[in-house]
Amino acid sequence: MSTMKSSQTVYYGPKADLNMYPKVGSVSANEQVKVVLKEVANGNTWAYIEYNVTGSTQKKRGYVLASTVSITENVTTYNTSKQTRYVRTASSTYLGPDANKYPVAGSVSLGEEVSWVCSVREGAYVLIEYDISGGQKKRAYIDANCLGTSAPEMASGRYIQGGKINSAGDYWHITNQWNGNNNANTNGHLAIDVVRKNSSGTSLSGKEVYAIADGTVVDRGSQKANGNYVIIRHSTAAGKIYYSLYYHLKESYNKTSVKKNEAIGIMGNTGSSSVGEHLHLGITKNQPAGGYYGYYYVNGVKTRFSGETYVDNQNNRFYNPTKYFTQGESIINNNY
Ligand SMILES: [Zn+2]
After folding, report:
1. Domains of the chain with CATH codes
2. Tens-of-pLDDT digits for all 336 residues of the chain?
3. How many A from CA of 246 to the centre of ligand 1?
4. How many angstroms separate the alpha carbon of residue 176 from the centre of ligand 1?
């Protein structure tokens, strides 16, 4: 066991900043704790400790600065690394790798995108980081069987939250996922492709495409690669600016300002689309980046990247629109 040098607040993540990770609890000076791992994050080395919960047989795990602990365990020091996973079974999360021995930390919902932290796994449980309200994050354990490497299809194969569907039973189906790769030579895709299907699962053609949020149409035209396109500018209550991009349209409507779910054109197969009729939906921050995948250069070098966002050398930030489709418009307002 290790010993606390001083009393400390214990956090849900490796940053002593309540704006990022909330408080798990606290430990006292000279308290015996178990150091589970060490992690280098935000310029500091953190100890992920396990400690007893007063008045309970349960224990909690959380982060304190490693310098505040007299560490006796010989544990590996990780550099922060995360891998994207999707919640395929809604579940509680726990303050340690066992649903009975550790308190509930919170919960994650079906379709939610989470990060698997540092490849940490104990038995069936993995340590994940996920968004909570107020722009904060938590790290906690979940049964790995609840996660997958691709987003689950919602409500019997239907992505329904991201757009208005006029006909009962119609839904949007994602045919090509965001993959965090901007290299066109390796099928990079900084967007999602969606098709419209009816209740029988048959793809529908010639259907309208809708604005994902209120906004202003800032560009509309035709390009060799993108085909007929529309770009909408969205501003949030917090003053952030986002753009949604709709490509390969059969035709676009001539509009200036649009409301969420207002039709902006008809789904098509124009431009360099090679997979049949679909909507290519992209979301970017700050600028309506023209290159939605591939052909982005950093200092003259084609650059491959990973993760849920990517910032190119012109400060265009690309976002994974899957979040929008699985979590609804609150994503635009709160998370991006
Ligand atoms: Zn696409």
Report:
1. 2-79 (no CATH), 82-148 (2.30.30.40), 171-335 (2.70.70.10)
2. 999 999 999 999 998 666 789 999 999 999 999 999 999 987 899 999 999 998 999 999 999 999 999 999 999 888 878 888 888 788 999 999 999 999 999 999 877 889 999 888 899 999 999 999 888 999 999 999 888 776 665 544 444 444 455 566 677 777 777 777 666 666 677 888 888 887 777 888 988 898 888 899 988 888 887 889 999 998 877 777 888 899 999 999 999 999 888 889 999 999 886 678 999 988 887 666 544 443 334 455 443 333 456 666 666 677 777 766 665 555 555 555
3. 10
4. 7
Question: For residues 288, 249, 320 and 295, what is the CA-based torsion angle, rounded to 10 degrees?
Answer: -60
- Contact at 8 Å (CB) between 292 and 309? no
Centre of ligand 1 from the C-alpha of residue 194, in Å:
8
Q: What is the largest CA-CA distance in the chain?
A: 70
Token output for 278? 């679909």
Residues with CB under 5 A from ligand 1 (ion): 191, 193, 280
Q: For 205, list phi and psi in degrees, rounded to 5.
A: -110, 160
- Contact 211/264 with Cβ under 8 angstroms? yes
Strand 77-79 versus strand 32-41 pairing type: parallel
Residue among 210, 224, 191, 195 at smallest CA distance from 292: 191
| Confidence (pTM) | 0.55
